[in-house]
Amino acid sequence: MTAILVAGVLYFARDIFIPLALAGLLSFLLAPAANWLERWKVKRLPAALMVILLCVGALGASVGRCWGRSTIWRSSIHSISRMSPKKSTLFICTRTVVSARRWQC
């Protein structure tokens, strides 16, 4: 009975617990970098902000690079597939990728 009650509470409180769990995970991942900056005489709050800004900037830069490459790749695939015969492997692969994207949630 207790297990069912705990499972029910966790199910309905997942909107609160998932962000808390992610925050805890990020704190474990980013704490060594902030500690390293503290050894270099940077106070805790500026060290934490610098680490967070560095991670967000790196994530944004990598997503931006991947996004730009994917749009170039998609446009070149579509232009090549228009030139090739309808039964080519490239056309079949492109058609499969497009139809798979329609089924994604």
Question: What features would you describe in this structure?
Answer:
The protein is mainly α and 105 residues long. It has one domain (2-102). The chain has helices spanning 2-12, 14-39, 44-83, 89-102. α2 crosses α3 (44-83). The longest helix is centred in the middle third of the chain and has 40 residues, at 44-83. The radius of gyration is 23 Å and the shape is flat. The mean pLDDT is 79. InterPro entries: AI-2E-like (IPR002549). It comes from Alloacidobacterium dinghuense.
Low-confidence stretches: none
Global shape: flat
The structure class reads: mainly alpha
Give the overall average pLDDT. 79
Q: How many structural domains? A: 1
Head-to-tail CA distance between termini: 35 Å
Helix content: over 70%
**SS field, number of helical segments:** 4
Q: How many β strands by DSSP?
A: 0
Estimate the strand proportion: under 5%
List the secondary-structure elements in sequence, H or E: HHHH
Q: What's the story with the biggest beta sheet?
A: none
Q: What is the rounded Rg?
A: 23 Å
Protein name: AI-2E family transporter
Membrane topology: Multi-pass membrane protein
Organism: Alloacidobacterium dinghuense
Main location: membrane
